[in-house]
Write a structure and sequence with these properties.
CATH class of one domain: Alpha Beta
Helix content: 25-40%
Distance between the termini: 119 Å
Strand order of the largest sheet: 4-3-5-6-7-8
CATH architecture of one domain: 3-Layer(aba) Sandwich
CATH topology of one domain: Rossmann fold
Strand content: 25-35%
Shape: extended
Oligomer: single chain
Number of helices: 6
Radius of gyration: 36 Å
Amino acid sequence: MSAALAPLARSVLKPALLLSPLLLAGCLATAPTMGENKGTVSGAAGGATAENQNSKLEHCDETLGTLSLYEDPQAPWWSQMRERQLGSTLPVIRLMVQQSNCFVVVERGKAFANMERERALMQSGETRAGSNFGQGQIVAADYTLSPEVQFSGKTGGGGGGIGTGALGLITAVAASVNQNEASTTLLLVDNRSGVQISAAEGTAKNFDFGVLGGGLFGNTAVAGGAYAKTPAGKVVTAAFADSFNQMVKALRNYKAQQVKGGLGTGGRLGVQGGSTAASKDADAAAAKPAAAAKPAAKKAAAKPSTTTTPPATTK
């Protein structure tokens, strides 16, 4: 065994040897610990305050408006996340957005049906007096944020092995490393005009280190890996956090796009026979006769030579 692999072998074999008598008795489990194994987006938000948030998450001193979120459950990536036992991306994105203080999140998801149910109870007369569920209280969403997962999966890796005969309990230990990557996008749309305000892409990756040991007791094995602590969902979450950070940075320097003549009035690219201002300008320019070419200037006549031949001299 090379000197480079010796420390790794000791770190792997020692826990396995200590646990080997216990493996004969059955499976082991530790008591859950609260608040550990946090991901990229963690903690809590209450109004404009946040607790235990990731310090790398961008923060806005001034809230930019109200925000609803829309996730397309018919998109191919959504079903792929479900196959990995991952749920909706909206809860973690909502937490991230509120912790940033960049937008006030308004409910337009499944809980909106409960809001409507309470108003129906009020209209039926079943709620108590003073319940104050009258009209004109729901806050409008200025913008809609749409998340998309562009890619999520393993993009490479490698493996190797070391062997030992220690105590006759462990015969081989195999190690493998895999890289997990994810790419996500966030689209921000103005709900009143339908204009896209911002678009951002983000990426994240981690490395999976897996260990698998085989013993002499039938199918008994000692297994472990970093993926139990960094599942695919955490890579996707980190990619969305990167997307959101990029978006916030762009919005800090936001300047509305301008179109001469106004948005939605035909644009600046006209077509022949069109009714827009740009089209009429194009037709008018095509109708103007080409300017007549100026005749080429005549070359000046050559001037006669003024050099005179001197008279011949007589000797």
